[in-house]
Amino acid sequence: MEQGPRQVLMFGLYGFSTIVNMLMIRGDLILNTAALAMGGLTIGEGTWMTYLTVPTLVLCGLALVIYRVVFKRELAQVRLAPSIREEVPPMTGREKLNLALILAVVVLWATESLHGVKGLYVVTVGTVLMFPLGMLRLKDFKSVNVKLLVFLTAAFSIGGVMKVSGAASIIFTRFTPLFPTSFGWGYVALVALTAMALHMVLGSNITTMSVVVPGILSIGAGVSSPEVLLFIIYVAVCGHYLLPFHHVVMLLGEGKAYYSGSHMMRFGAVMTVVLFGTVLLVYLSWWKLLGLV
């Protein structure tokens, strides 16, 4: 396959994962749990899915349409190879044991709310057990993305520094007079625009949420529920990007040269406009239908 179509397909793989990850709390262990922590909220998987799953599926469908239109020329060049059925040998005892371990880790991690064992412990124990089984070796530590860890450390720290230094307070002090005194379409639009604008300036979605979430929740206290405000910010920040550093998932793919920044700009420019409209017309309508606002 030529480079152009291949890069577009890889971009789609990474790009759609950012939307799919919004469907459940455990869709993205970093962003989703960080958003809740920044808002000081304790929300279960069921509540998260009630607020976000249906409208996010609509957003995913709209993103698919945009993807097919924006990359129409490259997608037309994709040629699927004919499927060849090969006889698969039966699993060995070792392979069955490895599969059982992986399934156990996934199931225990996904059902944390039922048994109460933190996912951190489940993943840690599962990883340790993979060494004697030969699934992991010491040389695999070389695969750890140190640059990403440094980026995440900086991203988490910037928001805290801005709050402690008073920069975040100065920013939102200027925004406060602009917000209406009652909750409505205008209020939602202003929250979304504020989050998206600061996201473009601050870059990382983690950094942006660490600044925007406390500020908006403080301004909106008594106007709307903190859950609704948090989810407006979350969708506005995590659902769009223009450059690689705007979303850590997209940064990973671009860093491996699977696609370029131009792919992100072409798709992201249209997606940003569509996302804003989706927050107002789909997410807010869904929450009103359920009586959440």
TrEMBL record:
It is found in: Membrane. Keywords: Membrane, Transmembrane, Transmembrane helix. GO terms for cellular component: membrane. The chain crosses the membrane at residues 12-36, 48-70, 97-114, 120-136, 148-172, 184-202, 231-252, 264-286. Its main location: membrane. It holds the Pfam family Na_sulph_symp. GO terms for molecular function: transmembrane transporter activity. It is a multi-pass membrane protein. Signal peptide: none annotated. This is Inner membrane protein YbhI. It comes from bioreactor metagenome. The lineage of its organism: unclassified sequences, metagenomes, ecological metagenomes.
